Batch of 2 targets.
Target 1
Amino acid sequence: MSFAGRSSSMKEQPHICPLCGRAYDEPPALSRADNQTDICPRCGMMEALAAMPRRETPQERTRRAVYATGNRWAIENFEATHH
């Protein structure tokens, strides 16, 4: 029976998430890895966030620009100040 069709009086055993091993009793999320596995809502949110495209950070843009110059001193200086 689906989560939506259950009555509130039914005592349901918590499910165990195959990714994190935590017990959960909320409606499951569908894993983006195989589109078949039910996972806990928390892991579902983490998979969704990981799948979102992200923008390049200012540090990554600067690193790309510094390495593009090929200037060894600039590269060494960047690495020394950003690690």
Target 2
Amino acid sequence: MLTKLKTIDPSKVRKLEGKILDADNLDGICENCLFDIEYEAGPGLIKKLELKSYSQSTINNILFSTKFKNQFKAYLADANNMNSFEYIFNSKKVNDLNFIKSKFKELFQQDNYKIYDDILKANPNSTVFSSIGINTKGQFIQAVNKTGHDHDLYNFINKL
């Protein structure tokens, strides 16, 4: 967290370790889900950061972690767009960004792309997917399966 904080203008930091807004009210997705850093990323853009210091084996297991999946769903259901949050992984633990994105791809594909339905059920007014041109489940499936993780759907994943 400190490495990322050094790159952010201190006057732009709004909160550290804060609750993902309304997560408790999102159809029981995630009670007490927290983000690591919330800051003003630009004029009118508030961004929540989730910093992960995961080993490769831990990233391999995100598909099986209910806690991880529910926290991620809370981020999606609470976000206005895909630019309003970011998952940042410690590059000293795992340096292959494509590997990390492939695990999120598997997470998206799980249970016949159920995460898409879960987000819209939790927040029927969600614009998180439509903000990147995804307006139907079919478009979501196409974006998830796009070769090389080139779709904007994966832009929230980064390393530091």
